[in-house]
């Protein structure tokens, strides 16, 4: 008798697992059940469908060879015996090894299994806000949600949109609405920065400023208290600080794993609400597998449990599950949480822990940041890339990396290179010596990742004493200190003229011969274009017995991108 496999959920995890087991053992009898009408779509492509970059929703369901992954596709091409959409699984009877599910007609049916896969996904958190049931308030939980949003904006019914939440979906939807449709778009975030938990404040500030230049408004540190509207549709968003007009509201306030079905079946569920699995993606019942957004995994760096709603991860997990259901012995690894998000002509990416996340996980850590050209400085086409590295001080272990740059693949390629090493607990020396393919049109001879690790090494060893940009701003406003520009005069003179008596020019090559101009009773703030010459100046001054100095991380190039008042 052939093996009976029932799969709950038909987006990334479920369809991948089912296809994999059928490839290995075509005799397997596969039944896939999903509560929605649309299955196997690229959920991460939804913002680009809403924006119009992806013209039709079927493109999100299509294969690379232009076949739509619908019921007919999975039955005819993939050999599924049954594909049941618009049907909600209501319970799992583990003793009888039966899944019960109810269709739109209200009739409940049973589906026996030998092996069961739970790919139930996740849902947008329900904040219980007054008025949240008004029309034109949407989450972006599935393709049907996206189609409703696209229908509204394409019909010209939206002039003002408010997005609640400044995470991945919130920022991507903000770009989709503001860029392609010209909708007046505002983002309300309860935290004090965008992408909280994913990047540090410096990267977040630069990314936010870039989006503001593209006419997206941000209201940070605000809590949405309610929604109001006439005739049943939303018209106003009420926060604890203001009222915003809105024809459309998108709730992007984070997700909650759909682990209730598993819990009710007696399976182990973790503190995050996600289903607990082992490295084979087996639940506490070895005949039931789970993966995707509905499971809980321990982070490879922090060791803390978390939920990782990433389509790429779900696809890899689906292959593991399919292999194991067919009698294999595949395993998955703890995630490091790699991400990238496109923000107009820029991008923000990261992997591992932020400094705040590292400290919360119990690491005694520091972070360093720098900027450097993404290609050889003499190559005509190039742009600045900004990276931040988080390291443990005592061991020099690298804990995470974040970056901000253009929307090409240069920066995310660097993030991915470091991401691939994090599970091996790399040290600063490992990253400093990480080998990159080199040619002037693609990188510098000393790649920015290598340089960043060297900066971290100098900081941990006490050779470099630097300050982040926010600290520089505070010193500029009210600090009792002296600012010295270590660049050559053509670069420093405009600032000396703009800030006479406050901005001082001493090129790095001259500083050892002009010590009488460097005070010993005040903090000396050294700045150059990217931080290299100010570090050299700091070394020169230390050699001469002057230690009351700090170097500005990333220099003037970073201050300009960050939006410092000095560069305005």
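-> sequence recovered:
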């Amino acid at each position: 008798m052939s093996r009976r496999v029932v799969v709950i959920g038909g987006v990334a995890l479920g369809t991948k697992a089912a296809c994999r087991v059928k490839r290995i053992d075509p005799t397997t009898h596969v039944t896939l059940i999903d509560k929605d009408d649309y299955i196997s779509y690229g959920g991460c492509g939804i913002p680009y469908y809403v924006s119009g970059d992806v013209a039709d929703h079927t493109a999100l369901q299509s294969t690379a060879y232009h076949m739509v992954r619908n019921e007919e596709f999975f039955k005819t091409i993939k050999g599924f015996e049954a594909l049941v959409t618009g049907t909600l699984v209501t319970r799992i009877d583990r003793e009888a090894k039966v899944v019960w599910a109810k269709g739109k007609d209200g009739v409940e049916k049973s589906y026996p299994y030998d092996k069961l896969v739970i790919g139930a996904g996740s849902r947008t958190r329900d904040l219980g806000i007054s008025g949240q049931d008004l029309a034109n308030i949407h989450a972006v939980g599935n393709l049907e949600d996206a189609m409703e949003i696209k229908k509204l904006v394409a019909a010209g019914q939206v002039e003002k949109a408010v997005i609640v939440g400044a995470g991945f979906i919130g920022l991507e939807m903000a770009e989709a609405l503001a860029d392609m449709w010209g909708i007046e778009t505002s983002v309300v975030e309860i935290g004090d920065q965008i992408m909280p938990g994913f990047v540090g404040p410096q990267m977040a500030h630069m990314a936010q400023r870039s989006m503001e230049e593209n006419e997206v408004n941000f209201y940070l540190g605000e809590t949405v208290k309610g929604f109001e509207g006439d005739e049943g549709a939303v018209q106003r968003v009420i926060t604890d600080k203001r009222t915003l007009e809105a024809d459309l509201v998108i709730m992007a306030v984070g997700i909650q794993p759909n682990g209730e079905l598993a819990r009710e079946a007696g399976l182990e569920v973790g503190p995050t609400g996600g289903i607990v699995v082992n490295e084979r993606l087996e639940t506490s019942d070895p005949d039931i597998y789970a993966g995707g957004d509905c499971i809980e995994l321990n982070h490879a760096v922090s060791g803390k449990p978390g939920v990782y709603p990433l389509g790429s991860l779900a696809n890899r997990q689906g292959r593991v599950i399919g292999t194991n259901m067919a009698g294999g012995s595949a395993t998955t690894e703890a995630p490091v949480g790699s991400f990238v998000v496109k923000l107009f002509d820029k991008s923000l990416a990261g992997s591992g822990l932020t400094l705040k996340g590292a400290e919360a996980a119990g690491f005694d850590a520091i972070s360093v940041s720098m900027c450097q050209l993404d290609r050889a400085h003499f190559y005509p086409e190039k742009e600045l890339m900004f990276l931040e590295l988080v390291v443990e001080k005592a061991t020099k272990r690298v804990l995470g990396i974040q970056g901000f740059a253009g929307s090409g693949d240069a920066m995310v390629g660097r993030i991915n290179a470091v991401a691939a090493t994090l599970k091996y607990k790399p040290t600063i020396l490992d990253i400093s010596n990480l080998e990159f393919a080199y040619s002037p049109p693609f990188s510098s001879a000393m790649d920015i990742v290598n340089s960043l690790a060297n900066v971290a090494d100098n900081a941990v060893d006490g050779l470099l004493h630097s300050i982040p940009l926010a600290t520089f701003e505070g010193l500029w406003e009210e600090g009792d200190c002296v600012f010295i520009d270590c660049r050559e005069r053509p670069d420093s003179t405009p600032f000396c003229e703009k800030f006479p008596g406050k901005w001082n020019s001493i090129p790095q090559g001259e500083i050892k011969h002009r010590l009488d101009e460097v005070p010993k009773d005040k903090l000396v703030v050294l700045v150059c274009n990217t931080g290299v010459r100010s570090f050299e100046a700091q070394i020169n001054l230390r050699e001469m017995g002057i230690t009351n100095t700090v170097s500005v991380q990333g220099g003037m190039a970073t201050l300009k991108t960050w939006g410092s008042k000095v560069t305005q």
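The chain has four domains: 4-122+256-325, 137-253, 339-460, 466-567.
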